[in-house]
Design a protein that fits this description.
Blueprint: E1 7-14, E2 17-24, H1 37-54, H2 56-59, H3 63-81, H4 88-95, H5 105-125, H6 132-142, H7 178-192, H8 201-215, H9 222-236, H10 248-253, H11 255-268, H12 271-307, H13 314-326, E3 329-331, H14 332-339, H15 343-355, E4 359-361, E5 370-373, H16 374-381
Antiparallel strand pairs: 1-2, 3-5, 4-5
Helix pairs in contact: 1-12, 3-5, 4-5, 5-6, 5-9, 7-8, 8-9, 8-12, 11-12, 12-16, 13-15, 14-15
Amino acid sequence: MHRGTTGRYTVTSTTGEVVRAFIPNPLPPVPPLEFTPARQHLLERAHLALGRLDSITLLLPEPNVFLYAYVRREAVLSSQIEGTQSSLSDLLLFELEDAPGVPFEDVVEVSNYVAALEHGMARLEEGFPLSSRLIREMHEVLLSRGRGSGKSPGEFRRSQNWIGGTRPGNAHFVPPPPPDVQECMSALERFIHDEQAPYPTLVKAALAHVQFETIHPFLDGNGRIGRLLIAFILSQGAVLSRPMLYLSLYLKRYRSEYYRLLDLVRQKGDWETWVDFFLEGVEQTANNAVQTAQRLVGLFKEDSTRIQTLGRQTATALRVFDVLRERPLLSVGEVTHRTGLSFPTATKGIGALESLGIVEEITGQRRNRVFAYRRYLATLNEGTEPL
């Protein structure tokens, strides 16, 4: 449905230029969304897929192992959309205190994203509401180091920003002026928590994401926080027991369409086409996550069976293997720390896994060696190739 522009323009001056900034109308849309039989079917399929995803925490013997890896995969993907070139292996190496190499800015950004996500998850688990305050807290963590650290971490912007173009005058889109940001965010927060809103949580998440990206309340990091907001709304609304739905791979693959639909909402008021795209992404992403978890369970079972053939080395190798399931890229020092084994014993355990082709040394050095659980990493790396 084309409702017309979903907000109003106001004339503002920034960097010496006069521009038209867009202030979105508060949610929900007027008139309400049309729920055709086809759209209702999309919604039901997305909910079924989310139910399967949520059941992972019941089916997996160690759900935190999957969550650890899945969160880091999301961090890489979400940061790539913003232009970083880090890989999952780069991030895991960065997280190893005794790993060789000097950290570089792209990896710091991805590491910050993990920290912001985990901060938000911890706050929700302790009962803190999803709010502007929590969003600012996550933003402060996101921009705590590296690029963007000078762009007011944890604070709504006090200067005008713009999207696309080299300056405000030729920008693709100019978000609300700074004095309007707080009220826009307060209205968004009220919508998220409005139990009388006529939409299920999944649809509210779709609407709220577009609204957040339209407000663009921060000087930097809006895309990453806006994508996290989807998972956190679903968790807050009890659709998922944990924030486990991350759409970054879907949005990365269909990035041009994603941006086109954001514009279509703002300019024409066509929320329905966006909601359809969003629901298809939810179903696809949730199903892929379930399949990935099932493949990892099968991989762990297969390799564990192979380790049972090692004879006297089996017990030590299994202890090392348990750590590798939690952290698929490790140094010998990290193995000794996590298992309590001596350095020589840990080295023998890794050597046994190396003989089976389960792990591979990746530095080519004689000291500070790092070992990768290759098949595990390959499964997680699917779709995470830098743009």
